[in-house]
């Protein structure tokens, strides 16, 4: 079985310090949280950025400043910026971090009701546009899917040449408006991707660690972090992203699964070696 790639989603665009005081906003706070996750065993940092007062932004300069600062202390880590942005942003606003030519970036494969009147909009043409830009810039997309239909969309666009193989999926499970985080639904998504694809599971809230265990057993990969869950156990706030990663490492050890280094993660994902 392949070694386990752990991704740390260190802040997200929705979670706030009001939810957990350790949620990072500033550059220094992002570096602190990325380093804690990297030291615990994460080989990928899934990155959103904010202004110092916590407002989500897709500003290219802010991404560059945060990414450069993280790479100073974690020089071989894979940084995976989000192109999700925020509700109401244009496609080109959302794509700003891809202008920095990261190794990976997220590509959301469908629209989703985010609660109330908020719709996270990703039309077919938007997905095609994002896929084209990532191919042009040599960026491997992590195909974020919140439901089975989004896998079907990715497979259809792969056949049309807008998304390249081998594909890497991220099953985001337990979001309001998306597929639940039940094991039944994990099995459904897992059985819906090609045999040559890789996948990561991001369980939201209470689903984080049960789905992590399922993915570890199955041979998949795991995402944890404050973006998805701010608790280390029921009612107990995590002190850092590193504490969440460390819990996944302990679960993996119980099942005899070794942890991938960033260099090993690059091989598994088909990325170029770090120079």
Ends distance: 27 Å
Question: Which structural class do you get from the secondary structure elements?
Answer: alpha/beta
As for the number of domains, it is 1
What overall geometry do the principal axes of the alpha carbons give? globular
Question: Topology as H/E string?
Answer: EHEEEHEHEEEHEHEHEHEEEHH
What is the β-strand count? 14
CATH topology tier name: TIM Barrel
Q: Tell me the fraction of residues in β-strands, as a range.
A: 15-25%
**Spatial extent as radius of gyration:** 17 Å
Poorly predicted sequence stretches spanning 5 or more consecutive residues: none
User: Can you give the helix content as a percent range?
Assistant: 25-40%
- Major β-sheet strand ordering: 5-2-1-12-11-10-9-6
Q: Count every helix, treating DSSP H or I runs of 4 or more residues as helices.
A: 9
CATH superfamily: Aldolase class I
CATH hierarchy: architecture = Alpha-Beta Barrel
Major sheet details = 8 strands, parallel
Mean pLDDT: 96
Q: What is the CATH level 1 assignment? A: Alpha Beta
Would you kindly provide a brief summary of this structure?
This protein has 275 residues and is an alpha/beta fold. It contains nine helices and 14 strands.
């Amino acid at each position: 079985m392949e070694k386990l790639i752990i991704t740390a989603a260190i802040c997200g665009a929705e979670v706030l310090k009001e939810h957990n005081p350790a949620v990072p906003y500033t550059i220094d706070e992002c570096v602190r949280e990325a380093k804690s996750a990297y030291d615990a065993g994460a080989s990928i940092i899934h990155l959103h950025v904010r202004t110092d007062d916590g407002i989500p932004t897709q500003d290219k300069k802010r991404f560059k400043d945060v990414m450069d600062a993280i790479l100073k202390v974690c020089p071989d880590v894979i940084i995976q910026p989000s192109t999700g942005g925020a509700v109401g942003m244009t496609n080109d606003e959302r794509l700003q971090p891809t202008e920095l030519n990261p190794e990976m970036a997220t590509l959301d494969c469908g629209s989703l009701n985010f609660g109330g009147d908020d719709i996270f909009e990703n039309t077919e043409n938007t997905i095609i546009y994002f896929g084209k830009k990532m191919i042009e810039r040599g960026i491997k997309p992590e195909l974020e899917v919140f439901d089975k239909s989004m896998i079907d969309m990715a497979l259809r666009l792969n056949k049309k040449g807008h998304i390249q193989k081998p594909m890497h999926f991220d099953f985001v499970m337990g979001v309001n408006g998306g597929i639940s985080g039940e094991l039944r639904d994990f099995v459904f998504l897992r059985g819906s991707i090609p045999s040559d694809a890789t996948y990561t599971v991001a369980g939201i809230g209470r689903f984080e660690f049960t789905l992590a265990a399922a993915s570890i057993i199955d041979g998949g990969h795991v995402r944890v972090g404050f973006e998805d869950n701010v608790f280390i156990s029921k009612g107990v706030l995590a002190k850092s992203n590193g504490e969440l990663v460390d819990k996944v490492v302990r679960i993996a050890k119980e099942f005899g699964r070794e942890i991938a280094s960033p260099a090993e993660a690059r091989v598994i994902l088909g990325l170029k070696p770090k120079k």
